[in-house]
Prior knowledge:
The structure is a single chain. It contains 17 helices and 16 strands. The chain is an alpha+beta fold and about 475 residues long. Strands 8, 9, 10, 12 and 14 form a five-stranded antiparallel beta sheet that branches. A four-stranded antiparallel beta sheet has the order 13-11-15-16, with no helix packed on it. A three-stranded antiparallel beta sheet has the order 3-4-5, with no helix packed on it.
Amino acid sequence: MTKAVKDSLKPVVINTDGLFEKHQTIYARSVKGVFDNWRWAMVFFTQLLFYGLCWVDWGGRQAVLFHLVERKFYILGMVFWPQDAIYLAVLLVISAYALFLVTAVGGRLFCGYACPQTVYTQIFMWIERKIEGERPARMKLDAQPMNSRKLRLKLAKHLLWLIVALWTGITFVGYFTPIKELIASAAATALGSWEIFWILFYSGFLYMMAGFMREQVCKYMCPYARFQGVMFDPDTLIITYDAARGEPRGQRKKGADVQSPSLGDCVDCGICVQVCPTGIDIRDGLQYECIACAACIDACDTVMDKVGSPRGLVRYSTENALAKHYAPRDILGHLLRPRTILYAAILFLIIAATGWSLSTRIPLKVDVLRDRGTLYREADDGRIENVFTLHVMNTDNTMHRYAIGVSGVDGIEIEGERIVEVPAATNKKFLVVAAVDDGAASSGSHKIFFDIRALNHDPIAVREKTTFFMP
């Protein structure tokens, strides 16, 4: 075997140190300030809405319920059927344009204040701080070997995490299975297999994402972080560091050399990095990892107060504002630009059209099917009859009685019962026989109309077209 062959058989060693970044645990420091108050306000608002809305009754049933078994969506008194899938598409379009508009104006505000990943991470971190202490205490606890105290604290933290995650999973499933029935079934250990699966899946997902992965979700899994740059422009409000004012950095005591031209306002304390939930340094400029939570603004403002310098070294601003030294009024003026105006106009038109459609929506749907077994039949009295099946869907939250009429051919009428009753949010089938005198129309097919109208409620009326066959 030649040396060249021997060398070719040797294992190839590839140095991957530069390909993958080793994950380092981020111990975010707590911070107090205006934006922290806003974040907690959004936590309380979103969670009150999520945990509470499924317990609200509307018209005798759950106010918001996506009942997959019945294939109906109940939303604040309105009932949506599979035939109303267009509204789901419109909702997605509205959500997309709202996200475009918010991002073009204020960057990743949704990520920092309303994203479920951010909200639940903040809840889990609050529990962690209450049990294990502040940032130095948590770092010290993780660095020490396992002992009874560390085991006790870790178990307490994870137990509370699991309780929050489990209740969140139950609440999530409670929007697809009536929450009261779900709780009763859980108490009686009679949950269905799919309900158990989704409760455990959602709970485990939340426990993993908010408890362990945290910033990794924002940095590596969320697609929004990757395409946000397309939606930004130089007039988009972002969290910025005023390098012209802050550099050169240097530590100094309160009131010392505040006006020194050789020293900027940044005291290089690093607190803005310590409070960042994704572990970035905002002084390095805009980065895709920034979720616009503004924790660094609160932290920097607190430090500026202590050293006697003006607030706003780290602040919400725009790239153009920093470069051209805009005043606050100029910044607000540049928020109204062709992109934001176009997004706002399209969003307004879609919402207005959707609102009009919902407000004028008739809570009645009717499908007319001919009897395929025979085109027509001759009755004992010589009249020509056609048989139809009417699918009447009452999409209202109230029971209705409907009058059925027919027109389109001279003398045509319905044989038998002409008044039908359909319970709320229910569909029923009715066999309807339409008859006409022999010779009332020429041979062949004729266009006729079924008129279905709710008694004592004239606006609820539908007309459906079908065909009547004559011999």
